Structures are given as C-alpha cells and as structure tokens.
Amino acid sequence: MDDLQFGKRNKRGDWTPNDTVQPAPIWHLPFDLKAILHWLPHYFFPWNILFALSAVAYWAWVIPPVETLRTIGFGWMLWLYAVNAVCVFLFYGAFELHLYVLRRQGNRFKYNAKFPSEQKSKAFWFESQVIDSMLRTFLSGVTIWTAVEAVMLWAYANGYAPWLSFAERPWTLALVALAVPIIHEVHFFCVHRLIHTPWLYKWVHSVHHNSVNPSPWSSLAMHPVEHLLYFGTAFWHLILPSNPIIMIYQMNFAGFGAIPGHVGFDKIEVGEDKLVDSHAYAHYLHHKYFEVNYGDALIPLDKWFGTWHDGSAEGEARMQARYRKRKERIAARQARTEAKGATE
C-alpha cells in the first residue's frame, strides 16, 4: 500500500500524516452532529471494545471465586500474574513480530524510519531498547499491574469498594463503562504532568523517555514508581459506583491500551487493502519533543493548558514560542540572582 497517499516522507525517511491530530469532535464548537456520528464508531472500535471484552473474559475464566479473593493469597496472585504476563507477551509480541521483527509493512506509515534494533544505546540495559523494555515490562510493569488488580479485587470481595450489580443498575454501570477511556485520559494527563517535574523526570520518567523512537515493548518500559502511578487509575473505582468487571476493563485499558500509542506506526496494514488506525501520532510527538501532548486527543487537556502539538507547522511554532519564553524567564531569573550576588 502506498503510504504517500496519506502522508509525506522527509529526506531521512521519516513519515508524517497529512491530517493533523484533532481532539474528539464532541468538543468542537459549533456542535457538529455529523462529525460526532462519524467519530463515534472509532470510540469503540477496534481498541476499546477489545479491552472491554478482555475484561469480561478475565472475569469469566481467570478471576478466582469471590470467596478466594477475600484473602490475599500468593497462589491466586501468581496465577493472575501468569495470565497477565502471557497476555502481554502475546499481544505486545504480535505487534513486535509483525511490524519490527518480520517487518511485513517495511517502514510504510512509520513515523521514524529507523528501527530500534538498528540504534544501540548505553541508555538501555544490554544497549538494547527491546531487551530493556521487555525486562522492565515483566519485572516491574506486569508485577505492579497484578498487585494493584489483586488489591482492588480483594477490596471488592470484602466490601471496601462499591460493587453494583448489572441486573439492578445497568444504566449506571453502562455510563461508568463508557467513561473508562475518559477516566484513563484524565488520570494519565495528571500523572504525566506530575512526573515531568524536574526531580521526578530525572529519577523516574526519564526511563520511559529513553525510547525516543518508541516500539511496542516501549509501552510499559517505565520506572516502578511510574508503573504504580500509571496503574493507580484503578483506584478511581474505590469511589465510583462501579463493578469488578469494569475495574478490570480499566486495568486492561491501561495495560494493553498502552500499545497503540507506542506502536510507532500511524496505520497498521491488515491484508492487502485494509488499514487500522493506531491513533499514535499525538503520543509519538510527545516522545519526539518531550514537553507536548501529555494526554491524548480524547479530551483537549493539552489545548486548555497550552501544551498541544497537532503535528502542524502552527503547532511547531507554538511549541518553539513556549520554549523561547521559558528560556527568557530562566535567563531573567539568573540575571537577577547574579545581580543580587554582586551587590552583597
């Protein structure tokens, strides 16, 4: 498939889409019903419905009986870790195998033309982005994911979290389920801004940003502190009128849903003529420029807080103007400090 029908490639071979990133049309004024109806299926398919169905499957076939959950036990927690680890290996591995090992679509629709395996760096364990990312995913990421999930299941089983029945409160639970991506977006944006403060960035978040050219295994390549903050999205269900299945959906949305933003390709070719949008461009720009797009495009939080980059020349100009103002403030602060020191 010719990716130049959808974007352009620079001299280095990096590909950018023709269309800029836009927040969901529910935020556009004036209200455009046609645009919303066109966007609505993309809210569900393919990713959100997949993660929701995975939660139902977990509850049906993976999660132990409530009586077992009432006591924190090594056995059932180890079982839950094993299932999470296997599912991550298969899901992440499928993208890695298709796009990065077999390279079945070459660098078509790939933002950064280079592949991580071609770029050795001492920033990574064994100088390999893939090995580093896999080890961090399974040693810390899946472990903390499982621990948070186990605590939440224990809380539900012991009445410490509101457990609504689908039979008695179907509409309430339907609304909470629909809001899972929104909850994730707000939580992720707040946590993300927090760990971009200088001290936390240096000691925590810089681990994730070692992957300037992200690939599937970069998704959960984080410091353990960031893993805890990231998967803490589940704790919203301690106060929301919710249900353990929806809580698992929230966890799976965070765990498996990190893939689309880090896959490194704008579109994934399925067969000869079908494309699946990754919606990764906004987050790719964050990995490229570091201080833009702390959230995704579901809610225009970055627009509201002045850190939005839509991939356009105007977005680039806004980013550079913000950088210049910050440098001017730092220079002015240093000048005041030096002037004060000279007078003492």
TrEMBL record:
Per the database record, which ranges form the Fatty acid hydroxylase domain?
A: 179-307
Q: Where is the signal peptide?
A: none
What keywords appear on the UniProt entry? Membrane, Plasmid, Transmembrane, Transmembrane helix
Identify a single GO molecular function assigned to this protein.
Answer: iron ion binding
List where in the cell it is found.
Answer: Membrane
Main localisation: membrane
Q: Output the GO biological process annotations, alphabetical, semicolon-separated.
A: lipid biosynthetic process
Q: Establish whether keyword Transmembrane helix is in the entry.
A: yes
GO cellular component terms attached to this protein's record: membrane
* Membrane-spanning parts: 43-64, 76-102, 138-157, 169-191
Superkingdom per UniProt:
Bacteria
**Pfam families given for it?**
FA_hydroxylase
InterPro entries recorded: Fatty_acid_hydroxylase, Sterol_Desaturase_Related
Q: What is this protein called?
A: Sterol desaturase family protein
Recall the taxonomic lineage recorded for the source organism: Bacteria, Pseudomonadati, Pseudomonadota, Alphaproteobacteria, Rhodobacterales
